[in-house]
Backbone:
């Protein structure tokens, strides 16, 4: 595989190097932001040899490559130095819901920092092994040196995050990092330790230790970006070289110390306290939810939301409970479910893909198996959630913690070695439970492989069927839905309706197979075997059930036109969410043709889709 050529092909299909606003990468995917999305040819990119999938979530355009992502990243980055400077700083501000904007800030800020956190975390894990086998004494200078090396990325977290935040907020990285250094200055640390009242020109200054903090520096850099724009605009050109940095530092740092920093620290403490409270009273809940729903967080790009909490806990407590234990269960369960596919599949291509991506998943990297196997086959995806939940429950009940920031998997077992000798034992048991349950569930649930057309026609059990509109509104093609999972037909073929009322009706006679606790999505299987998913709104799962009132439950038998759900259309829109409602045939491969009625508007009960 020529990854240099893949990088060139991607550049050609994203509108050229000059269209890149931001380029970063994680373990398996390129993460990009563009000046003009209209120049990006997503379908062409998806068809490139070496690209597993394309996802647009969390405020970023993500191209899933796999383990060789860094090679492709370098191929693209090497050409960016030749791009002339432009005036894109005045580009239109990013649109989207508040949640998406927050996730975008977190992902862009943390992505450059991840290698340092992993490096420090792995050194901490190696140190734990050295101590465990009595190769290093905790009282020795060797231990002290290795320990402070591993702690460095976490202690100086504000400096590292300042760089990523400056990229997101389009401000000077050096000035942002200098402000972070001011927050960590030894004199400030001494003042905090002394606990004496402090003022700045009469204004009281809250004494806060910013070492290892997360939220304060992100908020401070955000404020600094506006201060820098002010200084740039109003500094006379003849003295701008001297006056601009003076204004930026003299205004931004005091604001950070007096207002923004203490506020951010309060938010930091509230988030940690909430996580600690849940862990103390329902220790199984967070790991179980993370174990079950981590694949959804990955798909929607919201997995980054947990990163500030996890890194903050490792920095202050020496371990974390909100991310690692549940992710360990989920990653291993996804690997187990995928390897079951590898053993059971008849198609050689599927068998090969499932084998390699399943192995990668149990090592800690799940995107190849998630996008390449689980999501396409659906039932193994459910099996991986079952396995992740089972392993997560055990991890929570036993109090499993992660001592280092690494992607959980077999290679990350040392990250679970710490002062509690049983912790690594619980990690291994979590791995076994997650893998076995995920594998067995995937084997039992099975999956449908692509078959030659003539064989499908001879063996398919799905009859001709008709699906009627579940709501009133305007009809639009799936390609116009602002969610790649639907617009790229990853879940199946179908159509979308922009509802004009807040009622959702049964599109045919059948049985309710899915009713999310949040009420935003309902699945139904018709009498003829057609599997239909109705998803009210985009990212409305974030509303946690607010404004949704389901009228049915799973396994209910329903008749065409029966009311399934009521929802407050206007309140959902006011909350910042799109209400476009995809109607998806999730078993599309069972049909020879799926015809959408040629209508611009429709009433519930009118014919919407014909299947043959």
Residues:
């Amino acid at each position: 595989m020529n990854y240099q050529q893949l990088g060139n092909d991607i550049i050609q299909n994203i509108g050229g190097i000059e269209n890149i606003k931001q380029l970063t990468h994680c373990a398996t995917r390129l993460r990009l932001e563009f000046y003009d999305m209209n120049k990006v040819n997503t379908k062409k990119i998806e068809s490139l040899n070496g690209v597993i999938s394309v996802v647009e979530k969390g405020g970023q355009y993500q191209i899933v490559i796999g383990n060789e992502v860094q090679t492709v990243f370098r191929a693209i980055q090497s050409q960016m130095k030749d791009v002339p400077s432009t005036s894109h700083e005045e580009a239109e501000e990013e649109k989207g819901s508040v949640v998406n904007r927050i996730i975008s800030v977190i992902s862009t800020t943390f992505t450059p920092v991840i290698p340092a956190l992993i490096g420090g975390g792995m050194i901490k894990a190696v140190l734990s092994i050295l101590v465990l086998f009595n190769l290093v004494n905790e009282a020795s200078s060797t231990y002290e040196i290795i320990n402070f090396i591993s702690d460095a990325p976490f202690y100086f977290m504000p400096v590292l995050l300042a760089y990523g935040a400056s990229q997101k907020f389009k401000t000077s990285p050096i000035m942002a990092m200098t402000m972070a250094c001011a927050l960590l200055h030894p004199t400030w640390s001494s003042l905090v330790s002394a606990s004496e009242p402090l003022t700045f020109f009469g204004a009281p200054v809250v004494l806060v230790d910013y070492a290892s903090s997360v939220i304060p520096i992100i908020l401070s850099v955000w404020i600094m970006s506006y201060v820098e724009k002010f200084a740039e605009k109003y500094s006379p050109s003849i003295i701008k070289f001297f006056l601009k940095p003076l204004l930026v530092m003299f205004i931004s740092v005091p604001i950070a110390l007096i207002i923004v920093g203490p506020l951010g620290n309060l938010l930091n403490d509230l988030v940690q306290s909430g996580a600690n409270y849940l862990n103390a009273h329902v220790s199984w809940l967070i790991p179980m939810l993370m174990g079950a729903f981590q694949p959804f967080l990955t798909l929607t790009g919201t997995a980054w939301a947990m990163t500030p909490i996890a890194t903050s806990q490792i920095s202050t407590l020496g371990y974390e409970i909100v991310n690692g234990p549940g992710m360990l269960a989920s990653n291993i369960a996804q690997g187990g479910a995928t390897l079951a596919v590898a053993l059971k599949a008849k198609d050689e291509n599927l068998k090969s893909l499932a084998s390699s991506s399943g192995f990668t998943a149990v090592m800690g990297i799940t995107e190849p198996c998630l996008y390449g196997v689980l999501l396409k086959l659906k039932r193994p995806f459910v099996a991986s959630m079952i396995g992740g939940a089972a392993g997560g429950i055990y991890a929570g009940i036993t109090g499993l913690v992660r001592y280092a920031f690494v992607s959980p998997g077999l290679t990350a077992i040392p990250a679970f070695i710490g002062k509690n000798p049983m912790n690594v034992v619980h990690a291994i048991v979590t791995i076994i439970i997650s893998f076995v349950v995920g594998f067995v569930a995937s084997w039992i649930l099975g999956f449908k492989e692509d078959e030659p057309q003539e064989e499908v026609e001879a063996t398919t059990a799905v009859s001709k069927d008709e699906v009627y509109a579940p709501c009133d509104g305007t009809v639009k093609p799936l390609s116009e839905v602002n969610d790649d999972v639907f617009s790229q037909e990853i879940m199946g073929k179908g159509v979308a309706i922009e509802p004009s009322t807040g009622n959702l009706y049964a599109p045919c006679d059948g049985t309710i197979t899915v009713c999310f606790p949040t009420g935003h999505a309902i699945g139904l299987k018709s009498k003829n075997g057609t599997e239909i998913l109705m998803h009210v709104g985009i990212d409305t799962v974030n509303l946690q059930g607010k404004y949704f009132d389901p009228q049915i439950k799973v396994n209910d038998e329903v008749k065409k036109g029966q009311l399934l759900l009521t929802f407050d259309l206007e309140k959902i829109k006011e909350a910042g969410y799109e209400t476009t409602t995809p109607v998806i045939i999730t078993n599309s491969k069972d049909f020879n043709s799926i015809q959408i009625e040629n209508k611009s508007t429709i009433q519930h009960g009118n014919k919407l889709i014909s299947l043959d």
Notes: The first strand starts at residue 20 and ends at 25.
